[in-house]
Amino acid sequence: MTTPPHPRDIxxxxxxxxxxxxxxxxxxxxxxxxxxxxxxxxxxxxxxxYRNLAQFIPENYLLVFNKxxxxxxxxxxxxxxxxxxxxxxxxxxxxxxxxxxxxxxTHSVKWNCLVGGAAKWKxxxxxxxxxxxxxxxxxxxxxxxxxxxxxFTILFEWTPAGLSFAEILHYMGVIPIPPYxxxxxxxxxxxxxxxxxxxxEGSVAAPTAGLHFTDEVFTKLREKNIHAxxxxxxxxxxxxxxxxxxxxxxxxxxxxFIDVDRNTISSLLAANGKIIAVGTTSLRTLESLYWMGVxxxxxxGKKLDSLAIGQWEVYDELLQHAKPVEEALxxxxxxxxxxxxxxxxxxxQIMIAPGYKVxxxxxxxxxxxxxxxxxxxxxxxLIGSDWKKIxxxxxxxxxxxxxxxxxxxxxxxxx
Length: 415
Fold this sequence. Notes:
The protein is α/β, with parallel strands linked by helices.
């Protein structure tokens, strides 16, 4: 068997293409499912719209969606001097086991954040933001606890103390639309930068492949006996981080929380391989579940939350221990039985790049991604150099790019 190339040796210069500014969709279309759909299958490209998606998927397939919900993670504080401090909540402090626990905190919480204007904010200095309400003012205080490389640990405290942090963000924060849109968020973004099935709060970026789905699209899928299952991966700001190093070896992949229940794993088993991931986040979750199952087989007695997948772990340690998908998923269910739990709460840092062979899916539904991004590497892992063929077609046929843009259904061909 030929050993696949290690992603560490990949040069990012091979994944750069010219994306003109006017090809970036700055706003969503009026109707979600009016977005154009590029279908890639067997090296051939066809074109349609998302409202016709069911026509391109065989019966009895399972579509896996990411049901994370984007939170209003951007907060603005004004100092007495008039200086504005912007706090972007990235992820909870490690003292919390998962995002849901941190989001549910009342009275106070610690969060790791990016800070705009940090030089104007001294450690221990308390910033305050007030929101007038008929029932009494909401007051949010923030104090800088420590610096951790590029981000900071912030202590948030608020009244009324009975509100959860998720509620505080909803009332006092701003939806964090992608930085490449180069505009302020609007009221419309509160609805449109969110899937219609969003449920579990915790993302700072939307799983954008799902933005095209409507009730009408779901109805057509059900009529064709195409089913849906849901996972959660809370998308971090690292999803927008371009690869700036020459080789992938020097790029740090962002770690993200996943949350998957027993019923979903049972649905994956029942699908018998007929699975399509809706979005790169769903794909990363599914592939992480597979390798967690492999680790469950290798390491008896390890708790589920200790089966987290590191950035290079699959290539460096796990590939030689690959198991059939059914065996890996059954091992996860068995470990859940041992721990008397119905949920897997864990982190993944998995890097999917050329040289990686997907285990869980036959196809991916995804938007068009930024040049020099790990998401483009992921697409190339599925179809090889044909990613260039797809992107050239999309550029030549006036597809809209990035988060609010059009998308594609890509059937896996790379081995």
